Amino acid sequence: MKAYQLTAWQTPPQLREVEVPEPGPGEVLIKVGGAGACHSDLHLMEWPEGTMDFDLPFTLGHENAGWIEALGAGIALAVIAVSVLALGALTVF
Description:
Blueprint: E1 2-6, E2 14-17, E3 28-36, H1 39-46, E4 58-59, E5 63-71, E6 83-87, E7 90-92
Antiparallel strand pairs: 1-2, 1-4, 3-5, 5-6, 6-7
């Protein structure tokens, strides 16, 4: 899958091919149909190394819409192919 990633501090991000993750317990995998990089992503790219405790590469964008692709263990209320909107830690079915 494609991911827009910050690979080095204070450099432009790159569109990279990454492996599709497996959802862990209590998680769902969302197949993203649309993603947004917001103003906070732009600021993050400008910060010097050490400002944030993030490991690189870091996937940018936390405003996403798509469909549930897979369920992790313990997920009972979600349904495969249901459309979702994810904004940071908030996900709306």
